[in-house]
Amino acid sequence: MMTAEENDLLTRVVGDAPMGQLMRRHWIPALLLEEVEKPDCKPVRVRLLGENLVVFRDSKGRLGALDELCPHRRASLVYGRNEECGLRCLYHGWKFDVDGNCVDMSSEPPGSTLKEKVKHKAYPVRECAGFVWVYIGPEDEPPEFQRPSFSPDDNTPVSILKIRVPSNWAQIMEGQIDSAHSSSLHSSDMVPARIDSAGATDSKWLRPSTDKSPRLVTQPTPFGFRYAAIRRPIKNAATDDYVRVTVYVAPFVALIPPNTSYNVASVLVPEDDENSFFH
Which CATH class for the 4-146 domain? Predict the structure, then answer.
């Protein structure tokens, strides 16, 4: 059993928490592309690891991610006007481009150069596989962005469901990786089915095994680990094994065993210590 201190070390992500500091050094799938699909669309508030950002797509289609609060009087830029290649604060009209440059101060007199001295915090952004990815780690060069394994190319269709869950990230991720709970929570699916050969879960999610006490094996990998649940199959139980492997790609992705129709990935994004987005 984990101690309370060990649990906090794993689940806490806000501020100086070690897990949060680790996650900051990765590209985070912050929101869906469809949430900022069109130029000059409504800006979106995004909460990542306890920090509030605003994400917007400017008039030229470029994505920007800024600290939510305007550096002038700390008004929320979520309520700003996304117009003419910048996000304009509603309070005093300070306008910022996707790089955080202040490009206009409508409240300043003509000829004022104050805007040239103001720089708002902006974060690197990428768009890929149906997500907007944001890097909020140390300000030195972010790690090279790599396409996620669940989307090998731009021609692979991706369907994403987004759910906000009042839970820390680890509790949800544990449920996605774990195969042993199938025997109880998904017991109605653990039924005999006609299986002609060993293989992955079929398209009806019927398992070729009714074994409720699998042998569990983990294999560390450079990117996380593999987690195998080994069961006695319905067919050839004396000689064969039915092996269901889940892959954890640290820190946000779990790859669920595929079926004959599609692949399944779970993407977990912590808002803070007690809330997460589950995709």
Answer: mainly beta
